[in-house]
Design brief:
Elements lengths: L14 E5 L4 H12 L3 E6 L2 H8 L6 E5 L5 H14 L5 E4 L17 H17 L10 E5 L23 H23 L6 E5 L4 E2 L8 H14 L1 E2 H4 L1 H8 L8 E4 L9 E4 L8 H15 L13
Helix pairs in contact: 3-4, 4-5, 4-9, 5-9
């Protein structure tokens, strides 16, 4: 049986925080969760755009300003969320940037790594203690098939200061999303309540590719009917990872079509590199040092 949005269980009484929820995959994820009864927080960089998105969603929806390119903003947003909500059931790390020209975050991190990985790493760590006591709570991080493309964790030059390759930098950030999920799950396992999962949308027709080279954008536009799927369908793997009662911690969901480009969500595997425990743990330690955020969970099992 192919999984559909009709299989999303009722979410009454649950609080869901969705980053990047004013458009695309995040909006579709938030919309469906709200329709199923969740209290949904749209965590977005532009509060006005967030309010416009909230007005298009039926249900209990609020807006939280969050700029993942600024650790100060991440800390402020986490403080606001802690003040507003005694618990969080779902944290969906959805926001991201792709193939951007060489830029840095406000804290000096390469933009894609800083936004896609470090910003979400910090946000998760600052909110996790609101989730640990909540049975069935989940951290869902959105990765990409791009984690397979020329992707590695370049510990010798994480911020791409020596040279910059936008595709490889994106691949690093999306590989980091998966490694973070797997390492987080090992640390959560002894607690027995919260789990960490991951998902990818396939090739979804969203604004994310707006920074791609002109030739690539042209091909996407030309081949979109054959290769891509609407954002509403691209959000389904995230929604399954977030709500399906059968999902287990550390699992990764994506479309079931050719090359996982489109289709209904199913359990998938990530690249061999993503399962390297030693690199996962090293990335975790580096991420804690760069963000200054320590997680309220035990150390993971040694990779030795």
């Amino acid at each position: 049986m192919k999984w559909t949005e009709q299989q999303i269980p009722r979410q009454d009484g649950r609080v869901a925080v969705v980053t990047g929820a004013n458009t695309g995959l995040g909006f579709e994820t938030a919309r469906r969760l709200a329709e199923r009864g969740a209290s949904v927080v749209l965590a977005v960089r532009d509060a006005e755009k967030g309010k416009q998105a909230a007005a298009r969603i039926s249900g209990d929806v609020s807006v939280q300003e969050l700029d993942l390119t600024s650790l100060a903003s991440v800390r402020a947003a986490a403080a606001d969320l802690r003040a507003a909500h005694p618990k969080i059931d779902l944290l969906i790390n959805n926001a991201g940037v792709m193939y951007t020209p060489k830029q840095t975050t406000q804290d000096g991190f390469e933009l894609q790594f800083g936004t896609n990985h470090l910003g979400h790493f910090a946000l998760t760590g600052l909110l996790l203690d609101l989730m640990l006591p909540v049975p069935g709570s989940r951290v869902v991080t959105v990765s990409s098939t791009g984690h397979r493309i020329r992707a590695d964790i370049h510990f010798d030059d994480l911020q791409w200061e020596r040279s910059y390759d936008r595709a490889a930098a994106y691949g690093q950030s999306k590989l980091a999303n998966l490694m973070f999920t797997y390492e987080l799950q090992r640390r959560l396992a002894p607690h027995g309540t919260t789990i960490a999962t991951a998902a990818h949308p396939g090739i979804a027709n969203t604004e994310l590719a707006r920074n791609s080279p002109a030739v690539a954008r042209g091909l996407i536009t030309l081949l979109a009917p054959l290769l891509t799927q609407p954002a509403a369908d691209g959000a389904l793997p995230t929604l399954r990872a977030a709500t399906d009662p059968a999902v287990l911690g550390g699992q990764y969901y994506g479309p079931d079509g050719v090359a996982e480009g489109r289709g209904r969500p199913k359990l998938v595997t990530s690249s061999p590199a993503s399962y390297d425990m030693a690199v996962q743990q090293r990335l975790w330690d580096v991420s804690e040092d760069l963000t200054g955020v320590r997680f309220p969970v035990c150390q993971a099992v040694s990779a030795a």
